[in-house]
Write a structure and sequence with these properties.
295 residues, alpha+beta, Butyryl-CoA Dehydrogenase, subunit A, domain 3, Nuclear Transport Factor 2, Chain: A, RNA_pol_sigma_r2, sigma factor, RNA polymerase sigma factor SigJ
Length: 295
């Protein structure tokens, strides 16, 4: 096997990890994939014989790439729509069991990714690398160009910011979460406003992202009564709801007459739905193969 082929094989073995790092930093599947490909280009152009620890080297490289992407985002004008949800990670929902609990514990919720989007670039990189991938502050400092002490402070500040997201998505095992989601849609279909309010946390938040095409549907709505009223959409005829995992937790795909309408994720606190995330953007929905999730 030629050296280049051997290097390519090693990179492919590490690709899933790199994709995971990039997704948690960027919240975008497309940008994460671009970052992975950029990492390969940099590796293929480097003197790989001088790399003592390839996984560590690649993690550093992709982290710097993601940091540049985050800085570029921060320099752009503010999103005119006002609400932008991270790309959901969608999987088939397996049968209930211990493997589901593992998915819940290992995945990064949309609620957390929403908060990560509010962090400064260096804060996000420091938090993700330390709290999610357990790099030392000394290693992270070399990535973001700060001192070890400053890096520790960045991660600590980010940790305080994300604590609320963790609390908002801290309740219920897999079966409880699915039961709450099913109860939400059962009440919505029947127009049972009181039933909807009963499964919602009093301070529930609904984050809807319609993109530029559906800017009028984009909103953040707070409070159980207002969120319950918004659920009237699901009383319309021809709406089909398919159970899936959204970022490791029970969620749904929604279509009307075979046309994708939304992806919905749910956060649970104290056996009540504390946050609902709805991706309505037709352009981003078009990238999802809804048919692959149909029974």
């Amino acid at each position: 096997m030629h050296d280049h082929d051997r290097l390519a094989e090693q990179f492919e073995n590490f690709r899933p990890h790199l994709r995971t790092v990039a997704y948690r930093m960027l919240g975008s599947h497309a940008e994460a994939e671009d970052a992975v490909q950029d990492s390969w280009i940099r590796l293929s152009r480097s003197n790989a014989d001088e790399v003592e620890n390839l996984p560590a080297w690649l993690t550093t490289v992709i982290s710097r790439i993601c940091l540049n992407v985050l800085r570029s985002r921060a320099a752009r004008p503010e999103d005119p729509v006002g609400v932008h949800l991270p790309d959901p990670a969608i999987r088939h929902e397996p049968s209930h069991g211990p493997e589901d609990e593992a998915l819940l514990s290992e995945s990064v919720s949309l609620a957390l990714l929403i908060v990560l989007d509010t962090l400064a670039p260096a804060e996000r990189v420091a938090f993700v690398l330390h709290d999610m991938f357990h790099l030392t502050f000394h290693e992270i400092a070399a990535v973001i160009g700060r001192t070890t002490v400053a890096t520790r402070q960045l991660a600590s500040r980010a940790r305080r910011r994300v604590q609320g997201a963790r609390e908002a998505d801290s309740g219920g095992d897999f079966a409880t979460r699915r039961m709450l989601v099913d109860a939400f849609f059962a009440a919505a279909r029947s127009g049972d406003l009181d039933g909807l309010v009963a499964v919602l946390d009093p301070d529930v938040e609904l984050h809807a992202d319609g993109g530029l095409a559906l800017a009028s549907a984009t909103a953040v709505i707070r409070g159980a009564r207002l969120v319950a009223e918004r659920a009237a959409l699901f009383r319309q005829p021809g709406v089909t709801v398919t159970a899936v995992l959204v970022n490791g937790a029970p969620g749904v795909l929604v279509d009307r007459g075979g046309v994708p309408v939304s992806v919905m994720g749910f956060a649970v606190r104290q056996d009540r739905i504390a946050q609902i995330q709805i991706l309505l953007d037709p352009e981003r929905l078009a990238a999802i193969d809804f048919g692959a999730f149909k029974a």
